[in-house]
Amino acid sequence: MLAAVMLYPLGYALYLSLLNYDLGTGTRDFIGLGNYTALLSDARFWDTLNRTVFIVLAAVGLEFSLGLLIAYGLYRLTFGVRTLNLLLFIPNIITPVVAALFLRWIFMGRWGLLASTLIGLGIFPPDFLGNPTWARVVVVLADAWQFTPFMILVLYAGLNTVDLSQIEAAQIDGAGVWTLLFRIMLPSIRPLIVFVLAIRLMDAFRFFDQIYVLTSGGPGTATETITLYTYALAFRLLQVGKASALGVLTLLFVAALTALMIRVVYRRERGAF
What we know:
With 273 residues, this protein is mainly α. The protein has 14 helices and two strands. It has helices spanning 2-17, 34-40, 43-76, 81-88, 90-93, 96-107, 113-120, 132-159, 164-172, 177-188, 190-204, 209-214, 226-236, 240-266; strands at residues 19-22, 27-30.
C-alpha cells in the first residue's frame, strides 16, 4: 500500500523532474538536472520561497501562540471545558475552500462584511485583498482561524499529561501561573510540541486552496506560494518536468526545515525520545 500511494508517485515525480516534459508541445527529452539548475537560478523561485517561508512561519507561530494560551486557559477552567473544546474545534472541520469563500466574503473590498461595517461607522478601511501587505495578513489570519483549533486540541491534551506532583511541588515553592506554564509544563510536553509544530509546518507548506480562493496569489504575486507556483508551472504553462523538480525541491526544503526545527526546539537531549 505504501509503495502504491507514496513510493511510486514520489519516484515518478523524481523521474519527471529529469525531463524537459512539456504538455503543450509534447516534448519529453532527458535533460538531467537542467530543471533544478533553471529553478535555482530563477528569481521568481527565490521570491516565492521567501514569501512562503514568511507566510508559513507567521501562520504557524500565531497558531501555536494562540493555541497554547487558549489550551492553558481551558486547562485552568473547572467547568464547561468539553463544550468549549467542541465549539472551538468547529473551524477545523470546515472544508478549506468553503472556509476561504466565507472569509473572502468578510474581507472583500467595499462590499465585504468587514469593510461595509467599518464604512458604516465612518472608517474607510484598506482594500484587504487588493493591497499586497494586507493580502498577506489576511492569508495568515485565514490559516490561523482554521488550524488554531488543532493546536488547542493537541496542546490541551498534552497539558493534561503533566505529572500533578511536579505542579503541586512548584506551587508549594511559590511558582505563579506563568512560571508553572513555562518552567514546568512546557518542558514536560516538549516532544509533543515538536510533533505538532512539525505537522503544522509540513501542512502549511502545502497551503494552496485557501490562497487560491482568497487571492489566487495576488495582487500580482504578493501571496504566491511554492504550491501556487508549482500549480502555475504544471497546469498553466504545462511545464510538467519543471513543476516536478519544484515539488522535489519543496520536499527537500521542508524536510530540512523540519529537521532544523526539531534540533533547535529539542536540543537533542539524550534519552528524551
